[in-house]
């Protein structure tokens, strides 16, 4: 489906459930959305057997932090922190729940969410290991230890020189799928209890990932959802001088069209349990009104699929942030759907 931006801005969000009366009709529509999405991503390569090695290990009061690297489908390596709860020492054979903790747009990458040095309201990986989750916090390309030599953080030009027909989003998702493979390989992780959490860039990566890999059983996205409708800068998703998400989108945007609306991409994850937080004073994604309309449409979809209790959308008067009360609700949501009793 192609939409004119002018019509989206004038008429609002296209309904996910237009002409949809049953699950089979939704499945057919979902398949079409997924085909379009994968085409714009440049496809997703087949996975390769995961291999990882531990570079160092740091004991903390309630967990151990392993600095690890693992392979990818296209020959480079992902640097990551693997946080292992101390409770695992007493229950070594137990199947622990796990989360991928995906970082926002910050040069420090994984360290922002998985170490005490991370920023306030961003240490969700650290807080989740304290609750008894195994946490994998990877660097995405252009961040942390994966900044291209001679370039600033979040400059994707070297990636596109090597992969002119792929996309940074496709690469991130392929790397995250490899991270799921790693978690499933760990003997102390229950492969049926893996979630994804992120803020901003990490937030949309979380629901992007759940839409293409059903091994993600619960999603938390903070300040990661927006729409093309009402966006003061829709080219943020296309070609830019620094981080180019999906370059092909710029060709459409220059023609005044888009091939999808973002709630359609988020809908690929349904009916996976999905917790979303949106701030009305968000200066990155300031257009919260059309986003709220799209989130309401996602709510209707979840109800249509018989999963109304699996979608939680909260909107409040904060900025581009992940406040403590919202994080606590998000963690409770993960506990519920990953069937976890937090460590006291």
From TrEMBL:
Keywords: Hydrolase. InterPro entries: AB_hydrolase_fold (IPR029058), FrsA_esterase (IPR050261), Peptidase_S9_cat (IPR001375). GO terms for biological process: proteolysis. It comes from the Bacteria. Gene3D superfamilies: alpha/beta hydrolase. GO terms for molecular function: carboxylic ester hydrolase activity; serine-type peptidase activity. This is Prolyl oligopeptidase family protein. It comes from Lihuaxuella thermophila.
């Amino acid at each position: 489906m192609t939409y004119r931006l002018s019509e989206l801005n004038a008429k609002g969000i296209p309904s996910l459930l237009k002409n949809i009366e049953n699950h089979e009709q939704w499945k057919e529509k979902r398949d079409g959305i997924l085909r379009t999405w994968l085409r714009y991503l440049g496809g997703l390569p087949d996975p390769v057997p995961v291999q990882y090695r531990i570079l160092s290990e740091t004991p903390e009061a309630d967990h151990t932090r392993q600095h690890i690297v693992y392979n990818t489908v296209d020959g480079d390596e992902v640097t990551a922190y693997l946080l292992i709860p101390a409770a695992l020492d007493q229950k070594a054979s137990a199947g622990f729940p796990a989360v991928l903790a995906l970082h926002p747009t910050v040069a420090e990458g994984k360290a922002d969410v998985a170490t005490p040095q991370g920023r306030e309201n961003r240490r969700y990986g650290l807080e989740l290991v304290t609750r008894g989750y195994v946490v994998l916090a990877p660097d995405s390309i252009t961040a942390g230890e994966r900044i291209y030599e001679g370039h600033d953080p979040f400059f994707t030009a070297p990636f596109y020189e090597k992969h002119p027909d792929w996309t940074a989003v496709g690469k991130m998702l392929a790397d995250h799928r490899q991270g799921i493979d790693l978690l499933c390989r760990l003997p102390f992780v229950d492969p049926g209890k893996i979630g994804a959490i992120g803020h901003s860039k990490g937030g949309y990566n979380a629901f992007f990932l759940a839409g293409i890999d059903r091994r993600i059983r619960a999603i938390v996205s903070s300040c990661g959802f927006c729409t093309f409708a009402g966006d003061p800068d829709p080219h943020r998703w296309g070609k830019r001088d620094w981080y180019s998400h999906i370059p092909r989108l710029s060709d459409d945007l220059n023609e005044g069209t888009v091939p999808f609306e973002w709630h359609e991409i988020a809908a690929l994850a349904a009916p996976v349990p999905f917790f979303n937080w949106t701030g009305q004073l968000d200066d990155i994604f300031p257009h919260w009104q059309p986003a709220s309309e799209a989130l309401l449409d996602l709510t209707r979809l979840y109800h249509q699929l018989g999963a109304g209790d699996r979608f939680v959308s909260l909107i409040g008067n904060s900025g581009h942030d992940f406040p403590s009360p919202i994080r606590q609700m998000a963690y409770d949501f993960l506990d519920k759907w990953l069937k976890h009793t937090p460590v006291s």
